[in-house]
Design goal:
The protein is α+β, with helices and mostly antiparallel strands. Helix content is 23%, strand content 35%.
Length: 127
């Protein structure tokens, strides 16, 4: 066998190993997202559809955040917290993904229609 044959076999073997992971992830219930839940100071601030584009201003004693929902994705577009880690988190779009702004005690969670029960909200230990 030539060097190219070994390279082709390695590429095909690698691709074959990743196909089950791709299928499992795409068929997972965590990929079926439709609701955005926003928590501020441990309380539900609002529940919004992931498919309706909007901008939400969330204010608290220590500052404010602007949460944007656009194109089936959620992101924090503006924040006046130090570091702006919540802004740098980028966009989220799958159920189970979240964004946290610790200085403002803001928690944004994406859920599917079957989730959203009290088991999926942050508790005092994780928040």
């Amino acid at each position: 066998m030539k060097k190219e044959d070994f390279l082709l076999a390695a590429v095909l073997l690698t691709a074959t190993c990743f196909i089950p992971f791709i299928l499992i992830r795409s068929l997972s219930p965590y990929s079926l997202a439709d609701t955005v839940q926003i928590y501020s100071d441990g309380q539900v601030f609002g529940t919004y559809s992931l498919f309706e584009d909007r901008t939400i201003a969330v204010s608290c004693d220590s500052g404010s955040n602007i949460v944007s929902i656009a194109g089936g994705k959620v992101f924090v577009s503006e924040a006046d917290c130090p570091g702006n880690d919540c802004v740098r988190c980028g966009e989220i779009s799958k159920a189970g993904e979240f964004i946290v702004c610790i200085p403002h005690r803001l928690y944004i969670l994406i859920t599917s229609g079957t989730s959203g029960t009290s088991e999926n909200v942050p508790d005092g230990v994780t928040y």
